[in-house]
Amino acid sequence: MTDLIVLREDLEEHIKQGELEDKGPTHQAQAWLRAVQEIESRAADFRVSFQQRGASSEGSSWRSSYKLGCEAAECLKEVQRLKTQKNNLLPQLIPAPPPAVVPQPISSASIVDAEKTLSEIRSLLEDNEAPVIGIYGLGGIGKTTLLKAINNEPASRFDLVIWVTVSNELDILKVQEDIAVRLGYSRPGKGQGQTLLAHPTDRVNTLLSALSRRNFLLLLDDLWEKLDLEAVGVPFSSSFRNGSKVPLLNSESSWTLFCEKIGKGEDQWNDLSIRSLAEAVCQKCGGLPITLITVGRAMADGTTHGEWKEALMALKGIPVELGDMTEVLILLEFSFDRL
Ligand SMILES: Nc1ncnc2c1ncn2[C@@H]1O[C@H](COP(=O)(O)OP(=O)(O)OP(=O)(O)O)[C@@H](O)[C@H]1O
Ligand SMILES: [Mg+2]
Predict the structure, then answer these.
(1) Class of domain 115-245
(2) pLDDT above 90: percentage of residues in the chain
């Protein structure tokens, strides 16, 4: 039995080492470990029964001694079988399957007022009739943030969630490689695993076949132009699309986010005239998270009445409703100048 325990400990150590290289035990190795645990507990029970033998008149009977003897013989046979089987367990480790989700870091401390849009996106995801969902809205409104929140959902119904940042310059090869990495392939020149084949048709076919075997969710962030999913190697059976527009924050949520970035709690505005100037500046941010965050940070901590007044003056040309990105840029420039 001691030999078997040593073999088990060796295998457990081997598995621990393998985890550092993203490898996991084969099903055979797992079954062997379970069988060893079982025999260890049977042997422990046997030892107790053996020690108790003689404590009672029944315990020392010929019949119970015979039963114990049989149990000992069976245990020994199983121990012997497991010791021999251990030598045939090759390989013991195989590359672990890629994790279902690779969490994306979200930069904002908390996501304000996003639950409504998030649940709208979630319900579109539940709807199999809408295989393609577009999330759109002004720059800096929170599209990437919402997409990250969807990516990071703990109980996703998808067995593989793939995140790809597409960016301005659409590079199909990069999109294919990002997808392939999530399927367990290595990037060319990095890692020791298999890489995607060089020929475009082979790459497309490899991705098509690997993805069609999975219930996957592909999240494409920063998409600026039409992307032909079939040319990438992403299977999808219908052209039905649906969309979700990310709304601006309402004045209450804007104020919450603005105060958070200034570093002041709701109840820490002792000077009410400063508070009303700050509210007016907050309004100029037009409910756009990026401007609320940058202007809020620029106006953080210890700002005087005069400074708030100056800020409001600097932003006076900005209308109540943000019309276009030029106004967003004015707000960002204002924050930049205050750095
Ligand atoms: N609801 C929110 N609550 C708090 N912070 C937010 C929220 N939405 C976005 N932000 C923050 O605002 C900034 C801009 O958000 P994000 O990058 O998601 O916008 P975007 O719509 O993807 O912008 P772009 O069009 O430039 O890609 C980020 O710092 C993000 O953390
Ligand atoms: Mg973005």
Answers:
(1) alpha beta
(2) 40
